[in-house]
Design brief:
Blueprint: E1 4-7, E2 10-13, E3 18-24, E4 32-39, E5 46-52, E6 58-60, E7 68-73, E8 78-83, E9 90-100, E10 115-116, E11 120-125
Parallel strand pairs: 2-11
Antiparallel strand pairs: 1-3, 3-8, 4-5, 4-9, 5-6, 7-8, 9-10, 9-11
């Protein structure tokens, strides 16, 4: 059974930084994409960022461009999301997702991803 294991969540002050990690339990392939979605209480889960494990093409939601950076280590089947200048948005759960053959035009859709992690909670305090 393929699994995604996330780590790195926690409590951080507004303006601070945090790094999330996500490891896939099987080797990644060049056509895989791995990324992150975010869900705040009472809201729908929304796209944050994703990266293609082959070419390393990265995609970001407008709200995080310039503040978040996604990177990959294909040898470790792992992606990292560096979050800077965090805004006081209260608690949210960040979910790691992985999918095969996720097209650039559909990376923001959760339906395109095959595997999901359990989520890691991030709270940004003001």
């Amino acid at each position: 059974q393929v699994q995604l294991v996330e780590s790195g969540g926690g409590l951080v002050q507004a303006g601070g930084s945090l790094r999330l990690s996500c490891t896939l339990s099987r080797p990644t392939f060049s056509n895989d994409a791995m990324g992150w979605f975010r869900q705040a209480p009472g809201k729908e889960r929304g796209f944050v960022t994703t990266i293609s494990m082959g070419f390393g093409s990265a995609y970001y939601a407008d709200s995080v461009k310039g503040r978040f950076t996604i990177s990959r280590d294909s040898a470790k089947n792992t992606v990292y999301m560096h979050m800077n200048s965090l805004q006081p948005e209260g608690p949210a759960v960040y979910y790691c997702a992985a999918g095969a053959s996720v097209a650039p035009t559909t990376v923001t859709s959760g339906d395109e991803y095959d595997y999901w992690g359990q989520g890691t909670k991030v709270t940004v305090s003001s």
